[in-house]
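Dataset card, provenance and construction

Sequences and ligand SMILES were collected as paired inputs. For each pair, a complete structure of the chain with the small molecule in place was predicted and serialized as structure tokens. The example below shows a pair involving zinc ion. Curators did not alter the output after generation; any descriptive sentences attached to a record were derived from the structure itself.
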Amino acid sequence: MKVKTMYCCEFCNTTPFDSMEEAQKHEASHFKLTREQYIKWGKLKSVASDLGSYLSMSNNSENRKNFDDAIEELCAFEAENNLSNLGMAKIPSYFGFM
Ligand SMILES: [Zn+2]
């Protein structure tokens, strides 16, 4: 038996994609981003989220600085790519682990 993996867009109900790359390109198009920009955005969000969790567990100056730096980098990326008005747009968490 063969197992075939299909990928679907998180934001619309388009035809499933045969590869993650195709699905990522499609999802990126919802935000007028390239696939690379979309992946970078996901990583920035994931890092900020993780550092926020660390900060909630251990509130010290190093964790506060790391969290502030991550938020600053995320906000700069979103402003540069006209994503600031999207609020907390949900993107798949698996981008943080690529
Ligand atoms: Zn879509």
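Derived descriptions for this record:
The mean pLDDT is 88.
The chain has three helices and no strands.
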